[in-house]
């Protein structure tokens, strides 16, 4: 009798169960232990695979998504890629409204995955008809048989991480986690993961990472939206110019703000020192850890888990490009450049 072939039915079955990897060199001088939950091991190379499959399958169960349906979403790139990937496997059409801040690499990837992409100006208010929020809503209204994922205000965003990311981290740390550090954009990852972990141990400190130019940190502290906080910044998928309904601010203990420049260098440092090729927001999360350590947040008994949301390949034309870094003024610093020179052999 022939043995059965050991294979997955499709790529979507690989979503979740991402590894926890110890950070060694970047935190070598720090007290405590530091671990990265590396979401680039998802088949779509980001944590957004988790919400895409969860929301789509819930819609299928409810009969909202049927053969020939179109899925529409607002995205900085990663959620869009995950939805496009799932749409290919499941046979749906995919339309994405993308922020112009998204890297050209991300936009090219979305088009390569068969999505119709609308690139919208990043630095307009959320209610501007040109914003990617409003464009997605309009496309949904104009497209018969479509559903709008609306990750920023979809409770299933949090539920996906409550059901998967939280339990995975608890099991992988054998319940020894003391701190969780997560970049907050839609807020689904930090909110859902925090809810699960705090149900197991309410003493776990959950710290969100925000960007300068975003309203989240101040809203968390005051519960007031302050438009004066908003100004352009470069990090993708981090921070917001509105208050996402998918963020449970009560599940977050504190927010830390990080700069574009330091986050870019921290991402490069992780890649060059740990061999983990990470994206911009992973650098932001690592930068937050450095700042928290300097402020005395961690001790020798700390067991810190940092979520690294996506893969560095999506930022080749940005933080991994010396030309882009120099154009932003990020290489004109005292920080040593970590990228080796290219030697041309003639």
Report on this structure.
The structure is a single chain. With 346 residues, the protein is α/β, with parallel strands linked by helices. Helices cover 35% and strands 15% of the residues. Strands 1-2-10-7-8-9 form a six-stranded mixed beta sheet. The protein is globular and about 55 Å long.
The H/E string reads EEHEHEHEHEHHEHEHEHHEH
Summarize the biggest pleated sheet. Answer: 6 strands, mixed
Mean pLDDT reading? 94
Shape: globular
Rg (CA only): 20 Å
The helix/strand class is: alpha/beta
List the topology elements.
Layout: E1 20-22, E2 33-38, H1 48-61, E3 70-75, H2 78-90, E4 93-99, H3 104-112, E5 116-120, H4 132-142, E6 146-148, H5 155-163, H6 165-172, E7 179-183, H7 188-200, E8 205-211, H8 216-222, E9 254-258, H9 260-274, H10 280-294, E10 303-308, H11 322-327
Parallel strand pairs: 2-10, 3-4, 3-6, 4-5, 7-8, 7-10, 8-9
Antiparallel strand pairs: 1-2
Helix pairs in contact: 1-2, 1-5, 5-7, 6-7, 9-10
Features:
globular; 10 strands; six-stranded mixed β-sheet; 35% helix; alpha/beta; 346 residues; four-stranded parallel β-sheet; 11 helices; 15% strand
């Amino acid at each position: 009798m022939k043995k059965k072939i050991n294979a997955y039915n499709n790529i979507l079955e690989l979503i979740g169960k991402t590894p926890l990897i110890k950070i060694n060199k970047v935190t070598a001088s720090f007290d405590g232990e530091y671990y990265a939950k590396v979401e680039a091991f998802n088949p779509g190379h980001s944590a957004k695979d988790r919400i895409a499959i969860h929301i789509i399958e819930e819609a299928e169960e409810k009969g909202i998504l049927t053969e020939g349906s179109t899925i529409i979403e607002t995205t900085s790139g990663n959620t869009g890629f995950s939805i496009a990937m799932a749409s290919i496997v499941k046979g749906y059409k995919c339309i994405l409204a993308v922020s112009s801040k998204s890297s050209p690499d991300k936009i090219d990837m979305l088009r390569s995955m068969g999505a119709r992409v609308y690139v919208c100006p990043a630095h307009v208010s959320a209610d501007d008809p040109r914003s990617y929020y409003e464009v997605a809503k309009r496309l949904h209204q104009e497209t018969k048989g479509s559903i709008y994922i609306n990750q920023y205000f979809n409770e299933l965003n949090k539920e996906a991480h409550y059901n998967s990311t939280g339990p995975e981290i608890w099991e992988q740390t054998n319940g020894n986690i003391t701190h969780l550090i997560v970049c907050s954009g839609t807020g689904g990852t930090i909110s859902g993961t925090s809810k699960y972990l705090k149900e197991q141990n309410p003493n776990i400190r959950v710290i969100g990472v925000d960007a300068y130019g975003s309203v989240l940190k101040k809203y968390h502290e005051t519960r007031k939206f302050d438009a004066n906080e908003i100004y352009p910044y470069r990090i993708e998928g981090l921070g917001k110019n509105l208050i996402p309904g998918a963020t449970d601010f009560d599940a977050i203990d504190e927010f830390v703000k990080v700069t574009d420049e330091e986050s870019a260098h921290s991402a490069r440092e992780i890649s060059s020192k740990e061999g983990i090729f990470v994206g911009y927001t992973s650098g932001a999360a690592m930068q937050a850890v450095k700042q928290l350590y300097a402020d005395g947040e961690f001790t020798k008994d700390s067991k810190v888990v940092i979520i690294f949301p996506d893969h560095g390949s999506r930022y080749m034309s940005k933080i991994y490009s010396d030309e882009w870094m120099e154009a932003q003024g990020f290489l004109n610093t005292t920080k040593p450049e970590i990228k080796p020179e290219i030697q041309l052999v003639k």
